[in-house]
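Q: Got a minute? One more chain.
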Amino acid sequence: MDRLNGSASLMIVSDLDCTMVDHDDTENLALLRFNALWEAYYRHDSLLVFSTGRSPTIYKQLRKEKPLLTPDITVLSVGTEIMYGESMIPDSDWEQLLNKNWNRNIVTEETAKYPELSLQSETEQRPHKVSFYVEKVHALKITKALSESLQQRGVSNAQEELLEWHAENAKSNPNIIHASERCAAAIIQAIGYFHLGPSISPRDVSDFSECKEGSFNPGHEVVTFYSFYERWRRAEVQKTERSMQKLRLSFYPLGIIVHPSGFEQPLHQYIDGVQRSYGDKQGTQFRVWLDRVSSAQIGVDIWLVKFDKWELSGEEQECCLTTVLLRSKLLHECNLNLPLTKNGDDKLTTFRQLFTLLEGGIMVQWRLSGTL
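A: Always. Here it is, folded:
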């Protein structure tokens, strides 16, 4: 991947439905825990891959419904489409490879022999995939028969039930875990079980004063702060003078916020407003998560950090691209550039989107500019 300078330290390949995404977890708590863990510790040198049976159409629909991170690679339509990055650039070499062993006419001829099969929607019919619905009672028999007939005609495909495969092949394999947790929480469990790296999500930390890295980690800093920010607004952390004093000390005392309109507000006044916002989202559906966190060291102790900051409030969801300059020591000023929210209409909403309690870093000035 062009994003990485070398080989990935870790690559996680995950299905979506009932694996990364728990549709019974209405607040998406496990998924948000994984998001925070990945962006804090792994995004900078590892690869995240989503592999799903969904077509691009309903995959994008799921992204609107759930707080999914942007994967480095997306494998769609049961492996027949591979796309890269946020722009979802298709892998043309993979398409050419599939063309060698694919004949759609043969597939439609063979599947037409089974009245138990009913075609799925047009969006699920892809260049190298024909999708059907079938009742579970008929699925095994038809799958086996189709696999044999298609293989005889030079077109092959097979899929085993995961638990059945696990029962037959994996019980005594020390490199496979049958997790006790569900979905994204199970992925976190596996990371810890196999000692692949940090497995405590910043969202699992109750005392943020103890949430510190041995060395300065820009991703960890911004993710930890936003976890605090969400809990502050939801009144899930104690409102103490110590917390606010620590917040004030994290800012340059003469810092200002610069609104796109040109309006300037002293940072200390803004922090006073933040203090008054404690608990204003208590009991509501309010969540904050970061995506695509990247950092570059541009000085001895200076990092340029960029990320998408998402905020869910009720049914409304907003995203803004954020740029932060962090310093590992409380010596110099740092700037933050924050564009408008996607809707762009309520510009004042961007004021409340960011304040910072970045351990080991300070912020002098916020500049809000541009649109997404």
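A: Confidence is low (pLDDT under 50) at residues 330-372.
Q: Perfect, thanks.
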